[in-house]
Structures are given as C-alpha cells and as structure tokens.
C-alpha cells in the first residue's frame, strides 16, 4: 500500500476544512488508479470550480507519486512545516478509516 496526496486549491477564495477534506487529503491505496478513484469519491461534493481560480482539486496522481507514508511535497507530513492556511490533512486509510492530523506533528499509522 502507498499514500497519494491531493492538494486543495482555494477555488473561489476559500478552503473547505471538515472531517472529510482539509487543505490536503492523503489516500492509502494499492496504486494511483485506485487512489484517484477514491479521491474523486471523497472530493465529489467539495468540487467547486471557479472561473478565476480553476478546479478545487487536481486528481491526477501516478504510481510513482505514491509514498510509504503521507507526504507533502515529497516530505513526510510529520516532518513538514505547517504554514498559514495549510495546517491539517485528512488521511483516508484503505480500510475506510479517516483521520485528521496536524502537519508537522507525529502520525501514528
């Protein structure tokens, strides 16, 4: 199993942050196709499009983008630095569990 990370664009000038999505979502899956399908399902009701800003989510991961742990810019979330609006991520485990975590803090997988 690998982790695939999806970054939220502030489409319309705001971010959506709740139990399902945050500034980042990380999806655990066997491969990128499975992760992309799950990411579409997760973000479907949070997928506004803004003519100025574009799509809220960019769902186009490749197998080589998968990592052994949840990441942000190829760095483990637990070692990343939270900044401004990017404070949390929602992890979506393969078994259906989901958990909101703070970027830069230890993550118990």
From TrEMBL:
Domain DUF7296 span(s) in chain numbering: 1-103
A Pfam match: DUF7296
Stated name of the protein: DUF7296 domain-containing protein
Species for this entry: Pseudomonas brassicacearum
């Amino acid at each position: 199993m690998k982790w695939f990370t999806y970054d939220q664009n502030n489409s319309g000038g705001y971010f959506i942050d709740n139990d399902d999505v945050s500034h980042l979502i990380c999806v655990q899956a066997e491969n990128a196709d499975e992760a992309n399908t799950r990411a579409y399902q997760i973000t479907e009701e949070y997928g506004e499009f803004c003519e100025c800003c574009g799509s809220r989510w960019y769902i186009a991961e490749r197998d080589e983008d998968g990592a052994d742990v949840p990441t942000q810019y190829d760095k483990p979330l637990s070692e990343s630095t939270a900044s401004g609006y990017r404070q949390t991520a929602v992890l979506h485990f393969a078994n259906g569990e989901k958990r909101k975590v703070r970027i830069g803090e230890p993550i118990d997988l």
